[in-house]
Amino acid sequence: MFQSYDDISEKDQSAGRIAALRAWLADNGLDGFILHRGDEFQGEYVAAYAGRLSWLTGFTGSAGVVIVLKDKAAIFVDGRYTIQVKEQTDDSVLTALDVTSEPPAKWLAKNVSAGEKIAFDPWLLTTAQVEKYQKQAQSANARLVAVDHNPVDAIWTDQPARPSGKIFTQPIELAGRAAHEKIAGIQKQLNDKKAKAVVLTLSDSVSWLFNIRGSEIAHNPVVLAFAIVPESGKAQLFLDAAKVPDEVHKQLERTTTIEPPENFAPALARLAGSGAAIMVDPDHAASAIITLIEENGGAIIRASDPCILPKACKNEAELNGARAAHRRDGAVMARFLSWLAETAPDGGLDEVAVAKKLEALRAETGKLRDISFDTISAAGPHAAIPHYRVTTSTSLPLEMNRIYLVDSGAQYEDGTTDITRTVITGTPTAQMKDRFTRVLKGMINLTLARFPEG
Questions:
Q1: Is-above-0.85 flag for pTM?
Q2: By mean pLDDT, which of 248-257, 306-315, 441-450 is the weakest?
Q3: Which of 7, 234, 265, 432 stands 20 to 30 A from 423 (CA)?
Q4: Is the pLDDT of residue 370 over 90?
Q5: Could you tell me how far CA 285 lies from the centroid of its own chain?
Q6: Which CATH number among 3.40.50.1000, 3.40.50.20, 3.40.350.10, 3.40.190.10 corresponds to the domain 168-312?
Q7: Do the Cβ atoms of 76 and 94 come closer than 8 Å?
Q8: Which of 288, 264, 263 minimizes the C-alpha distance to 40?
C-alpha cells in the first residue's frame, strides 16, 4: 500500500514547540518568525524534512502560513482547510484565520510593534512574498530579517534526513522529446531575452526538462534539484551523485554536468560575478537566489519559468500516454464503483477499507507506480471536508442512505489521473437530490461561461 492511514498530526505538542521557537528567537534578538508550508524548491508537496509547519502546529494540509510573534500566533489557510485547521491545531496557542479575508502580511502589520525584527528563511519564501511582508512590516515601523539558519530546524531535534531516493529516466517514447531538444528550446528563449542563463527551481520543471523522475516526495515523482541552463553549452544539474544511476548519467552526459547540491550557490555566485544577466522567476524562486545574484554583481531578468509553457504544450507521445492512463484508470473506477454498489449494502465497510480496495484494483493493472495523492475516502459528514484525510482513528463506516465521496488518482508511467465521484449508499433524501442537482447545474454553467481575456 502506498497510502498510510496513521494520524500524523501532533496537535498536543504545538504549545511546547511554539514556546521553544519563541525562546530561540529571543536568544537571537528576534521578535517573530514567518513560516510558509514549503521547501527551497517552492513545491506544493514536500518531503518529510520540510514538513516544518506540520511539526510546529499540528496542521497537515498542503497549504498554510504561520506567523509567531512574542505574545500571539496565527495560522492562515484557504477555504479547503477551514474545518481541518480547527481540528488539528490548539486554539489556545494559535488563532486560525482565512488567508483571503485576513492576508498574513496585513495581519502582521496590525499585530507587530514598532522596532520589532521579524525573521524569515530566505530559502522558503519567494522574492514576491518577501516584498509583500516587507511593505507591511515597514508600514508598522518594523523590519524583516533574513536568517541564515531556519529556527524550526534548530529546535526540531528529530527532524528527518533529506531524502536519498534514486532517480530514473522517463523513456523517450513517453516523453516525446529528448532532453537536448528541450534544452535547446530554453536556450533560444534565453537568447531572445538576452540572458546569459536561467536558474530553474521548480522540481516539475527540472524533471520535465531533463526527462528524469524521482521518488523523494510521496506520490510525486519529481526530482528535488536546482539547475542552471546557460545560453549555450551544457546545463548544470545540482544533485547528489549517489542518487544518479549509470543509465541516467549516460542519458544526460551529452547536455548536462551533474554537480553536488552544495555547489549550487558558489556556481551561481561565480556566474553573477561575471556581470551576467540571469533569468529568474520571482514568483517561484527563493528570495535567497535573487539576493545571491544581486550581491555578487549579476543582473536580474525577471521572467516566468521558461519551462512552464512548453511543459503545458503536450506532444503526441504525452497525449497518447495521458489517454492510455485515463482509459486504464477509468476501467479501474468502473470496477470499483460496481464493487462498491454490490458490497456496501452488506455492511462492514469503512473509509479505510474502501480506499485500500481502490488502491488494490489500481495495482492489479500492473502499471501503478504510486497513487497521485492520499485518497480522500469520506463518508457522511466527512464528505463536507474538501481535503479530508482518513486515518485509522477517524475512519467512519459506510452506512446506508448516506453520501460517500472518493477523490483519488494514480501515477502511471504514461500519465497521472485524478478523479472524484460522489455516490449514495442506498436511497438519497430529497435534500441530497436538491443539493447534488444545484452543484451539477452550477458546474454546467461554469463550464459554458466565457471569461474575458486577462
A1: yes
A2: 248-257
A3: 7
A4: yes
A5: 14
A6: 3.40.350.10
A7: no
A8: 288
